[in-house]
Amino acid sequence: MNTEFLSAIFLDGLFAAIAAIGFAIISNPPRKALIICPLFAAVGHGLRYFLMNSTLIHMDIATASFFAALSIGLLAIPFARIIHCPAEVFSFPSLLPMIPGMFAYRSILALTKFMQTTDEAASLDYIVQFWHNGSTTIFVLFALVVGAAIPVFLFPKQSFSATRLLRKLVGKSHKS
Prior knowledge:
The protein is mainly alpha-helical. It has helices spanning 3-26, 31-53, 61-83, 87-95, 101-116, 120-154, 162-175. Helix 1 runs antiparallel to helix 2. The relative contact order is 0.13.
């Protein structure tokens, strides 16, 4: 790997981390989570960039997004126990920078152009663009959801549950 590729991975992760901070602040998590969310976003987005652009492993965006979301989900499990927050507090803001907004935009744009055109050849091209971009959007979103959910289902005892925290709090209030 050359330094240009490594710096591109680093910059991709850095921009994802900045976006994750913004997404995390919206949901008002604990301050400890604000440190971890950008780290997870940088790792996940950097991994996705590596998997999509590496000469050794060249994956499509949906498969690379799945493995990136899986890595974020696996990282969230131990940190949820350490910080006493649900794993979703870390994983969801970290996943949001990977949502394929450009594919969704291009899909709607192609559909709009299809409805406005009278040229038969152009309308066929717009339908192809709509289905390509729309299906890419759906597959990437599905990959992100499944990749982030698998670790929670695989390690239910290790993932922090908000219901356990509520039971502890309710149990303490009854004892007082």
